Automatic annotation (TrEMBL):
GO terms of molecular function: acyltransferase activity, transferring groups other than amino-acyl groups
PANTHER family: CARNITINE O-ACETYL-TRANSFERASE, ISOFORM A-RELATED, CARNITINE O-ACYLTRANSFERASE
Domain Choline/carnitine acyltransferase: 15-182
Keyword Nucleotide-binding: no
Pathway: Lipid metabolism; fatty acid beta-oxidation
Record keywords, A-Z: Acyltransferase, Transferase
Protein's recorded name: Choline/carnitine acyltransferase domain-containing protein
Organism expressing this protein natively: Rotaria sordida
Entry keyword annotation includes tRNA processing: no
Catalytic activity: 4,8-dimethylnonanoyl-CoA + (R)-carnitine = O-4,8-dimethylnonanoyl-(R)-carnitine + CoA
Record-level GO BP terms: fatty acid beta-oxidation
One Pfam family here: Carn_acyltransf
Length: 182
């Protein structure tokens, strides 16, 4: 039997909290090519001082990891998406690049658009019916939670941090089509 999107969701391991030593090592490896020797040595001193003083912060992360399904995901969502103020279509929205099409007439464009919407709705039906095969890294199952948030979700602007509204999949069945910016 093929595993589907929610089959193994509850059996996935939690995202581990990296150790302070691991985080410091990765940080130094990342910045090393960007710094000269003096700057890198100064950065190493600052990182070591941070490591010595930050054990209480590490403990807070470990506690959060025990109470949250994923200790990082809400912070990631907030900082990289909901608080960010760049243009959404260019920087954040999922996009599809389709092969160039040649249409004989306007009816060809309409037919292509109708087929595209039909394909999206078929995919939505597979999602709703839990028929999407689970993604894997080798043999290990990956979290499929994001698939349920691709369709039927709306970002609602707010002053300091936007919010997301996920519509009930049974109550809302609309497609918005924009034509000539209308």
């Amino acid at each position: 039997m093929t595993s589907t999107a929610s089959t193994d969701q509850n059996t996935l391991p939690r995202l581990p909290v990296p150790t302070l030593a691991e985080t410091a090592r990765k940080y130094l490896k990342t910045v090393a090519p960007l710094l000269n020797n003096d700057e890198f040595n100064e950065t190493k001193k600052i990182v070591e001082q941070f490591r010595q003083e930050s054990e209480p912060l590490q403990e807070l992360l470990l506690k959060r990891a025990q109470t949250e399904e994923n200790w990082l995901s809400q912070w990631w969502l907030n900082k990289t998406y909901l608080e960010w103020r760049l243009n959404l279509p260019i920087y954040y929205n999922p996009a599809i690049v389709l092969p160039r099409q040649s249409y004989r007439d306007f009816d060809g464009q309409i037919q292509f658009a109708a087929n595209f919407v039909h394909g999206v709705l078929r995919y939505r039906s597979l999602l709703d019916g839990n028929q999407i095969p689970i993604d894997r890294f080798g043999t290990d199952p990956l979290c499929m939670d994001q698939y349920n948030k691709v369709l039927g979700i709306c970002r609602i602007p707010a002053k300091s941090i936007d919010r997301l509204h996920l519509y009930n999949k049974n109550g809302h069945r609309h497609v918005a089509i924009f034509y000539r910016n209308n």
